[in-house]
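WARN retry 2 of 3 for item q-0093 after timeout on previous attempt; input resubmitted unchanged.
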Amino acid sequence: MNKTAFVFPGQGSQHVGMGLQLLAQRRDLIDSHYRPADDILGIPLSTLCWEGPAEDLRDTAITQPAVFVTSVATLDVLRARGIAPDVVAGHSLGEYAALVCAGVLDWTDALRLVRRRGELMAAVNDSVPGGMAAVIGLRIAEVEGICARVRAETGRTVEVANDNEPGQAVVSGEAEAVERVRIEAAASGALKALSLKVGAPFHCSLMAGIEAEFAAELDRVTFSEPRLPVISSVTADLVTSAAEAKSCLARQLTGRIRWTETVQRIRQQGAGRLVEVGPGKVLGGLCRRITPDAQVRATSDERQLAATIEDFTTAPAVA
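OK item q-0093 returned
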């Protein structure tokens, strides 16, 4: 277990000030990543990352490119210090940064895709108001059963969207049905059942209406063969070709994120050290609970980034 995995966070890891820890070491990232992103998207993305306001950062169409750009800028910092992974994966949105790391996508192409993905997802919520809720303390099968009952009783869409870790699932669907699941989960013994502040009902069948339009966006982009192992969070399996990478990104819109299985697959690849590359610490926390014997490192603030770099330059991984 002496290999290293880079794992890239998804939506929910954003925070005002993200990326500033990188600029403390590498001011050149402004010109190599942040300003180009501003120009490509035609929005002040860099200012939103560094200064907010937080309300704007919660807009799905802004959140997704903001997290993505900060993740690939963090990747650049690690690479410049000679730190490279043996295997990569990303949680939902994070899969785009993972594919950049593996040489499958150019980062500017991925940025455009991420922006369009966020816009299309947010538009779904305008036509069918939806929501998401986290259920903690129940087995995934129990949460699936509650969703099935609520669908049968209400005729509304609600599905398990994320299997984040053993005992933590996220449900997604029409707002009324999601609230019913949340209430029933709490009554069934869940430790917590919390509504999430998100901009759309991600990873459920309500997203089917945007699949064709997003597939056309994917077709405009060049996908290359992976240069290192990539594990998709929607299949929890290795991505073996450029065509498969494209297919996995398309399937993400309606497909469940299988993060528990993804981390288990990472471990099967021999990775004893997992580095969360990008803003926040959410993903690292999930990884620790899924695989407690692995070393998990973060890069979200200056102290964590420095410690991670020092860890790679002074000691081998163990697990």
